[in-house]
Specification:
Strand 6 and strand 7 form a beta hairpin. The strands form 8 sheets. A 4-stranded antiparallel beta sheet has the order 1-28-27-26, with no helix packed on it. Strands 2-3-4-5 form a 4-stranded antiparallel beta sheet, with no helix packed on it. 3% of the residues lie in helices and 50% in strands. With 393 residues, the chain is mainly β.
């Protein structure tokens, strides 16, 4: 097995939870959501570059960079105050951020925000069980184009397909829903069912950067409180029918057939909060409430079969890990390489590398089941006998 090697911590331990980190699609920047602000780090120097604050009344829960911008850098934020904020900064200005727009409509905390590949659409989701889609119609001007309310529980995550205007949402109701626009109206085209508990995270399979990797159809990875991570794929028959329908003037049904293609090897023993699919190696990484960081790889000889290639136990000591993402960063050796970025309840943002040349690696033992539970001093977390903290989300 390979080894997951610690490179650096962008922040020291803090009382403020870090919910999420996201790299800019083109620039060497990393944004983290913590407290009532965003912190922007340079992935070239692994140091703090600027702080974005002052727009929200409560903690920032999520953030997402807008793709395709050149002279102006734009980032969206979602907050516990139920609003979505839009921030801009000139590319050459490393200090001043402008809070240009606030989008209101959600009735409870915003859990996730995501831009479409073209950058013209912004999706948000909330504890209020709804998904909103906003369209940019002018400079700093957005209008609501859809309010989607078919989920039966708290919506944890939204994410656009990397090439299509296809939106995925994951929910407390154990379902994943896929949404498309049909004749000027957005609707649900598929419901992916299989998880036995809350679906916390999703990620689309990225477009390959190497000719050695072949992607035959759209795939999505999801993770859940049921401790499983699953791969979903559009049915091959559906792909063929859609391809043929593009050549016909006859409109086909908007319903799409998606199937569960595989389950990743089960290593986690507690909730998996986040999964991420690598653009470079096409590996998948997952993190969760048990503090593990797990990297998986698809069998090149037998597709649909996945194997564990690396495991790191206690990645953030006894704390839960909230989010994971792949990014390109300059490491201490001076080279730029793909790294893993994790964020946790300990307030830290950590950078890791996967070392495929590790001589030896062993699977960590599973932590014992908690039997002596008590509330933290702050009253927002419970701690068990194995010292793993579980925070109210």
């Amino acid at each position: 097995m390979a080894a997951i090697t610690f490179i650096a911590s962008l922040t020291g331990p803090s009382s403020s939870v870090v919910w999420l980190s996201t790299p800019h699609p083109n620039l060497p920047l990393l944004a983290t959501a913590t407290g009532t602000c965003l912190r922007i780090y340079s992935l070239n120097t692994l140091s703090l570059q600027s702080t974005v604050n002052g727009g929200h009344k409560r903690s920032v829960r999520a953030c997402a960079w807008k793709p395709g911008t050149k002279d102006i850098v734009t980032i969206a934020t979602g907050s516990f105050d139920a609003s979505v904020g839009i921030w801009t900064q000139e590319v050459d200005d490393n200090e001043e951020w402008n809070f240009t727009t606030v989008l209101e409509g959600h009735e409870s905390e915003v859990k996730s925000v995501a831009w479409s590949a073209g950058g013209n659409l912004l999706a948000s989701c909330s504890r209020d069980k709804s998904v909103w889609i906003w369209e940019e119609v002018g400079d700093d001007d957005y209008e609501t184009v859809a309010v989607l309310q078919e989920h039966q529980g708290d919506v944890k995550c939204v994410l656009w397909h990397p090439e299509e205007e296809l939106l995925a949402s994951a929910s407390y109701d154990d379902d994943i829903r896929l949404w498309r626009e049909e004749v000027d109206d957005w609707g649900c085209v598929a419901v992916l069912r299989g998880h036995q508990s809350t679906v916390w995270g999703i990620d689309w399979e990225p477009k390959p950067q190497s000719d050695e990797i072949v992607v035959s159809a759209s795939r999505l990875v999801s993770c859940s409180s049921d401790t499983t991570a699953r791969i979903w794929k559009k049915s091959p028959n559906q792909e063929q029918r859609q391809s043929q329908s593009r050549l016909s003037i006859i409109k086909t049904s908007s319903a799409e057939e998606w199937i569960e293609e595989a389950q990743l090897p089960q290593v986690h023993v507690r909730t998996i909060y986040s999964v991420a699919w690598s653009k470079e190696t096409h590996r998948i990484v997952s993190v969760g409430g048990d503090g593990k960081i797990v990297v998986y790889e698809e069998n090149k000889e037998v597709q649909k079969e996945w194997q564990v290639v690396a495991v790191q136990d206690c990645g953030h000591r006894e704390f839960e890990i909230n989010h994971v993402i792949w990014a390109k960063a300059k490491v201490p050796s001076g080279s730029v390489q793909e790294v893993i970025v994790t964020t946790g309840d300990d307030g830290e943002v950590k950078i890791w590398a996967v070392d495929d040349n590790a001589i030896e690696a062993t699977m960590p033992s599973e932590p014992s089941e908690p039997y002596d539970l008590s509330w933290s001093d702050e009253g927002d977390a419970m701690i068990g006998s194995d010292l793993y903290l579980s925070r109210i989300r």
